[in-house]
From TrEMBL:
UniProt-listed Gene3D superfamilies: HAD superfamily/HAD-like, Putative phosphatase, domain 2
Name recorded for this polypeptide: Hydrolase of the HAD superfamily
Taxonomic lineage of the native organism: Bacteria, Pseudomonadati, Bacteroidota, Cytophagia, Cytophagales
Domain of life (superkingdom): Bacteria
Alphabetical UniProt keywords: Hydrolase
GO MF: hydrolase activity
Amino acid sequence: MDSILNPSTLKNLVFDLGDVIIPIDLTAPVRNFAMLANLPEDEVWAIWKEHNFINHYETGLLDDAAFRAEVRQLLKNDVWADEVIDTAWNTVLLDLPVERIARIQELKANHRLFLLSNTSPIHIRRVNDVLTQLNLPTLEQLFERVFYSYEVRLAKPSPDIYRHVLTEAGLVAEETAFFDDNAANIQAAAELGIQAVHVQPPMTIIDYVKDL
């Protein structure tokens, strides 16, 4: 469900992170943990779905240590170092297209910019490390406010997380655009009156904001 952007009323831009700013491969962590544990990938997928601990991690019910402990317990390997787990978990993140960061920086001149992501602390630290290595601003520097699911203890597509962003940042829904790659997330935002845009390949976020 897409909304046609109305630049004349648009004051605020809210961006998702994964597959909007940075490309991701949601299957990569499962492949890597399966290889580390010497298990079939479908068995690791089944464990992930049965226990739902990733959702608990991304909504702040588990901290980093508890997340890693859960991985060790479920995959029956209590000797993996934190770095091993973090590295496998971060394989979801692909190479960062720096031109997307440059375009977002340009948009700052005429819009208030925000980030809204279902994510985890391990992923955010890694993204910020990559940005710093490229001499680019961190996410917290790039945006006026960042809203991470694990901090607000809410996750898309719950309407409550969009209401939280609008209230906390003092935004009017009709003056706000939201860019996300997930159709359910887009529909939930649109139902609140937000100008919601479904980012879909082969187009990238640069294509969607070129006229702003």
